[in-house]
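go over both lines:
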Amino acid sequence: MHPSEPLEALPDLTLAEAGERWGVSSRNSVKARAAALGVELRRESSTRTVWPAEFVPLGDRLAEHLQAGGTLASFPGAKPSLPAPTAGTDGGPRRSAGLSVMAPTAGSDGLAALAQLAAALAPPPPPPDPLAVARGLAEAAQLGAWLSTAELARLLGVARGTVGSWDSGHAPRPGFELQRRKEGSPNRGGAVWWRVVAEAKPKEGPKPARQ
């Protein structure tokens, strides 16, 4: 179905159909777009919720806007902040063209959908540094500092119980060994400290003479 189809040819779209039409992979993303645009999804049954046909063109324009590099905040139809409700003729909140102007409360579905949309549009977090552990071990070995069990576990990214089960001489990774020292009475327990020691590099033999 192409976004340029005439309005009269457009039926209501299920959330799955709307997601396929706009290149959205999750139902929550479709709901987030509806909340941001002020479109009220219709729940026809416990398993079927639809995007009304009269607002499909609005969804098309938002999809084209985002695919062109635009943002939700710069889209003319977006509602980043909704005005307070004004009284209608019956004393209730005024509604216009099927869009509710009632500001969502802190626990409303609209705020939750907006939060989901903001999370989906946020840039991904940077990948973890693959050299963080090796760099930390090298710095600890260079300093010659004694680390507590909790500090060493945090440096290596393992549980404290795992570190506590190691003996002196354990190699957490090639090139490094641990020295373990326990202070206090052996029978009453005491603090356990660890020092990282870098393994000595093998000495290079003499270079062969040139012929």
Remarks:
- Residues 81-88, 92-108 have pLDDT under 50 and may be disordered.
- The beta strands are 13-14, 42-45, 48-51, 95-96, 99-100, 146-148, 176-182, 192-198.
- The chain has two domains: 7-83+98-121, 132-198.
- Residues 132-198 form one domain.
